[in-house]
Design goal:
368 residues, alpha/beta, five-stranded parallel beta sheet, two-stranded antiparallel ribbon, globular, disordered N terminus
Length: 368
């Protein structure tokens, strides 16, 4: 860890504090260079140490998606607040989920992409929660109808081309389809595969879920493992099943229907604070209440997304922050929308500009 540089950055209350010597994630917006995360990340606590295998290699980054959400990498990016970085590193070191709360639109979900980019943890897995989300949908999906049709020798529109069986194993009829061909791991299920380095998983807006989902997650998050019953039942005929993952066009081998992680994933769970979670769930998470972005952070965000436009719209940023305070909080993309219109040629002295700004910066409560 001695090779890391630790410049000074702004604190939560506007002061300045030095970087902590124990920080792995530094909140600079700069990817680690000439440093391998596996060499500087301390071992987990004994009660969070998992031994799944065989170990899978790191997954490449999805740069287009990262740039879309974060903008281009810029050395002018200011640090996050020290308190936020403390909590992110605490979750990373303890191998615990990070429960991020705050009003809508202030950048809770972007934390997952910031960590993945800086630490080189590859593509972010995204599980968007709805009222219909279940633990099983996050872990895996099993296409029972597709398997039944394949066993009868009939194809099904949209079914992936079956993996051809080699050697002995459980085949389901025409084309040599095997049971693993009809299993696809979900975002949570993929994150818990035995990767060499932690995968980053974003569980977005958990407060939209059915009331039981947070409690249902406890066993999986505590044990870092899960079973796929359909593969467990077939393990005597097909001990090793090749299944699809949540990463595009990727497959992995699951042995005896059981998945167990090696490096516990870095999990960011976001909540808009619309409901209370069970105490048993909360005590297993590191909790972070995100503050609205500062003026310099908003300026850096604009520079990252509009790097070729030149200039820094300080007046508009201050106007946005004032309007945000008046309206009970605005989302950062509402500012980006206004900046884009300006770059598209809409002038501030245009007679329609005031009306456009009122429409773009309308309060999020839905009031007319």
């Amino acid at each position: 860890m001695s090779g890391l540089q630790h410049p000074v950055e702004s604190g939560r209350n506007g002061g300045h504090v030095s970087s902590r010597s124990w920080w792995i994630y530094r909140g600079t917006g700069q990817p680690l260079t000439d440093i391998r995360l596996g060499d500087i990340l301390p071992p987990p606590p004994g009660w969070r140490d998992f031994d799944g295998g065989p170990v899978l290699p790191p997954v490449p980054a999805e740069n287009a998606e990262s740039d879309r959400r974060l903008g281009a990498v810029s050395r002018a990016t200011p640090r996050q607040d020290a308190h936020d970085i403390d909590m992110i590193n605490t979750a990373l070191l303890l191998r615990r989920p990070l429960l991020v709360t705050g009003r809508p639109g202030i950048g809770k979900s972007t934390l997952a992409y910031l960590v993945a980019r800086e630490l080189g943890l590859g593509r972010v897995l995204h599980w968007g929660i709805t009222s219909r989300s279940t633990l099983r949908s996050g872990l895996y999906e099993y296409d029972a109808i597709g398997r039944a049709q394949a066993s009868l020798g009939r194809g099904r529109p949209g079914l992936p081309v079956p993996v051809q069986a080699t050697g002995s194993g459980a085949e389901d009829g025409a084309g040599g389809a095997r049971i693993g061909d009809f299993v696809r791991l979900g975002p949570l299920g993929t994150a818990l595969l035995p990767y060499e380095l932690p995968r980053v998983l974003l569980i977005d807006e958990l407060d939209k879920s059915d009331i039981d989902l947070p409690s249902d997650l406890l066993h999986v998050l505590e044990n870092g493992s899960y079973d796929i019953p359909e593969l467990v039942r077939a393990r005597h005929q097909e001990g090793e099943a090749r299944v699809f993952t949540d990463d595009p066009d990727q497959t992995v081998t699951v042995t005896d229907g059981r998945v167990k992680c090696r490096a516990f994933p870095f999990i960011v769970i976001t909540s808009n604070g619309e409901r209370q979670f069970p105490p048993a769930f909360l005590r297993r998470c590191v909790r972070l209440d995100v503050s609205p972005p500062r003026e310099d952070q908003l300026a850096a965000m604009i520079a990252a997304h509009f790097r070729d436009q030149g200039g820094r719209p300080d007046a508009m940023i201050r106007q946005f922050m004032e309007r945000s305070r008046e309206n009970g909080g605005l989302a950062t993309d509402q500012l980006l929308n206004a900046i884009f219109l300006r770059t598209a040629g809409v002038r501030e002295d245009d007679e329609a500009w005031g009306e456009l700004l009122d429409a773009l910066w309308r309060e999020l409560s839905g009031a007319p």
